[in-house]
Fold this protein.
Amino acid sequence: MPHILVTIPFSHFCEKARWSLEAAGVPFVEEGHCPLVHRVAVRRAGGRRTVPVLAVEGGAAIDDSPLIVQFADAKATADRKLWPASGRARDEGLELERQLDVDFAPHVRRFVYFHLLPRRDLALELFRIDAPPREHAMVRVAFPVLRALMRRFMRVHEPGMRRSHGAMLRMFDAIGERLRDGRPYLLGDRFGAADIAFASFAAPMLQPPEHPKVRVALESLGAPYIAAIRRSQEHPAGLFALRLYRERRAAAAAPSA
Ligand SMILES: N[C@@H](CCC(=O)N[C@@H](CS)C(=O)NCC(=O)O)C(=O)O
């Protein structure tokens, strides 16, 4: 059996794991699920609660994206490594990843869910992506309950959304600042895991056309979300992430020679 990546396919944490495995050239099969129902699959795969979970062929489950990235990095050949081998650059990269995981990704998610969850049609369209049809049918029926639970678990409300918007913009500025010296990637000259993490987490605010799972017609999103996307797309950090999707995302997905 190959490695299996259990996901909620549209999730930005899952995109980070998927892109990392692909960039490292680690083959895997993805198993997508709908939100909340995913917990059954997560448990079955040996994880605790969240996706992504990588059920390693013949091994234990890895249920945290930084550890999945480290697994991918360990398997990668020298030309596809995701982290510098050692030293200051590696520590700096791991610290940046931690900041993105903690201080950025959850804020993007809360901002997006605040605008998305009132829209049953759109939310269900996203939940449908690569999910088992039976699961999606269940989620359709249970949508009002599911939505209430998601709002509660992620504290999706107006003041929270505003705080998250501020935190998100601060990270865009910090990333823009880091790139001001003209470096092509976050740690310098080499593309790697920090770039993948930022681009994956920023994707819901940028809607890059190269995203392997999510295709949303921008016009369907509602004015405040569209305005935030437009601003992000013009921000230096947004332009950087869009470039990574354009230049690196399809290449990562292509089977290695
Ligand atoms: N620290 C985890 C966080 C992953 C995470 O928050 N995953 C979300 C999807 S975006 C999740 O599974 N949420 C559902 C839940 O908490 O039940 C990682 O980096 O893998």
Remarks:
- The beta strands are 3-7, 28-32, 53-55, 61-62.
- The pocket of glutathione is lined by residues 8, 11, 13, 39, 49-52, 64-65, 101, 109 (CB under 6 Å).
